[in-house]
Amino acid sequence: MSHIKDVTGGTPIVLESLWKTYANFVAVSGIDLSVGAGRFCTVLGPSGSGKTTTLMMIAGFVAPTRGRILVSGRDIAALPPQKRNLGVVFQNYALFPHLTVFDNVAFPLIMRRVPQAEIAQRVERMLETVELAGLGGRYPRELSGGQQQRVALARALVFEPRVLLMDEPLGALDKKLRSSLQIELKALQRRLDVTVIYVTHDQEEALTMADQIVVMQGGRIEQNGTPEDLYDRPATAFVAGFMGDTNLVRGVVMAADKDGTLRIDHPTGRRIIARASGFQAGDHVAASLRPECLSIESPDGPEEPENAWDGRIAAVTYLGDAIRYHVAVGENRPTLAETLVVKAARRGTEHRRFSEGDAVRVRWSRSDARVLPPTRADARILPPMQAGGH
Ligand SMILES: Nc1ncnc2c1ncn2[C@@H]1O[C@H](COP(=O)(O)OP(=O)(O)OP(=O)(O)O)[C@@H](O)[C@H]1O
Ligand SMILES: [Mg+2]
Q1: Chosen CATH of 13-232 out of 3.40.50.300, 3.40.50.1360, 3.90.1720.10, 3.40.1010.20
Q2: N or C: at which end does the chain have fewer Cβ atoms within 10 angstroms?
Q3: Which residues pair with 226 in a beta bridge?
Q4: C-alpha to C-alpha distance for 165 and 163, rounded to whole angstroms
Q5: Whose CA is nearest to atom 25 of ligand 1?
Q6: Rounded to the nearest whole angstrom, what is the distance from the C-alpha of residue 172 to the centroid of ligand 2?
Q7: What CA–CA distance (Å, rounded) separates 184 from 139?
Q8: What is the pLDDT of residues 220-256, one digit of tens each?
Q9: What is the number of the ligand closest to the CA of 46?
Q10: Does 218 sit in the ligand 1 pocket, CB within 6 Å?
Q11: Which CATH code is given to the segment(s) 246-372?
Q12: Could you read off the pLDDT of 78-132 as tens digits, one per residue?
């Protein structure tokens, strides 16, 4: 069984083939997930992929159709939400409108019969942490959306839960407050040694905050790993496209050598030479080429033997510290799939090296092309119906 040993004093969470169906619609499709004690796990995925539903099942607001949820190795299915001892911040998880900010934050402590003097101390400290010191006497309707969100965060953290579940908690905030709260939240999480599951739409937020990232699609987990795993070693074209910018060049494997060298042909007749195991001739694949891994040069000089595609600059964008070139590489077929995006770091005072319309050559090395299976279809399969499930 997947009972992780509770070594740090934090609380591990394990989901075992967890399903949620509504009539014949599968919202969560038998997911397995293990989040170690004290880890910060971020859940990413497109709208409707099942993120909120998963969090709601852990919190106890939605009953799973099948499967188990283990917290510290204990199945919590029978416990009502308030007995699960989880801190919860949902985007629309309302504050008590008739209570002041202070009393909202104090509420979990009153429920736990913490002595009055200690309550005052802990609430004040928590309000300072979320930069709301001095606003304890206000009512929620007298606060901005972002301030209300921070009160919700303070209320979820004040009783120092072992697990914190958050669904887009910073979504309503401006960029500056958002990034300062990200740092605050991460520091708080480390200090309190709390296990966090954090849903966001923002992949940059996921990369900076998480120890572990889960990408969901169509009710399933598409990939689960460290930020480095997901960015540098995406398992599918979907994950590669979802985590940062990439060029996904689709083609067919024409030859696969024993040593893992692949020859991939693109519909324009161009060719990619790459290395990857597990593919054979005839496979449809997508080669992921990160814009920062491509180099751009003048097309004169001898034709390069491999991974050098000639094209024309279609657009140039300044990024401040870098320049982004869109290079049309499809002959007379300027569709999106035949444009390569190259991100070139600016060197010294150098400005544009190439302009729109210039003929250029885009190059990369074998090791920079990551060969991936095409994206899995969104097939929402109903759970097995035999009796005797958990
Ligand atoms: N009570 C319900 N009845 C029927 N379908 C539901 C119900 N709740 C959620 N769903 C469906 O389940 C799927 C997953 O919803 P969920 O809210 O988990 O998505 P999400 O990943 O959180 O999306 P978003 O990023 O938009 O918040 C959606 O297609 C949604 O319409
Ligand atoms: Mg959601």
Answers
A1: 3.40.50.300
A2: N
A3: none
A4: 7
A5: 47
A6: 14
A7: 24
A8: 999 999 999 998 889 888 898 888 889 988 899 999 9
A9: 1
A10: no
A11: 2.40.50.100
A12: 899 888 989 999 876 679 999 999 999 999 999 999 999 999 999 999 999 888 9
